[in-house]
Amino acid sequence: MSVERCPNLKKLPLGSNRVKEGKIVIKGKEGWWKEIQWENQATQNAFVPCFKRIANDSEDELISDDI
Question: Where are the chain's structural domains?
């Protein structure tokens, strides 16, 4: 799955069990990441290692997995 250029995306369609598969990479701006609404703190904590900050402000959010 890949989602690009969707800065208004506030909830990710992913459960914390997807993290265990080890294939999730979430790229985006730091501000966008901080605005994501999580099911609970445990789910948010589970996805923290998957997040890769985009340094260039001209790039948009990207979510992908290899499935």
Answer: 2-12+21-65
35 to 22, 23, 29, 47: CA distances (angstroms): 23, 23, 10, 14
- pTM as predicted: 0.71
Chain centroid to Cα 60, Å, comes to: 12
Q: 67 and 20 in contact (C-beta within 8 Å)? A: no
26-43 pLDDT tens trace: 888 888 899 999 988 988
Closest CA relative to residue 24, chosen from 15, 35, 37: 15
State how far the alpha carbon of 55 is from the alpha carbons of 8, 20, 41, 59, 61, in Å: 19, 27, 25, 8, 11
Cα angle 11-47-26, degrees, rounded to a multiple of 5:
70
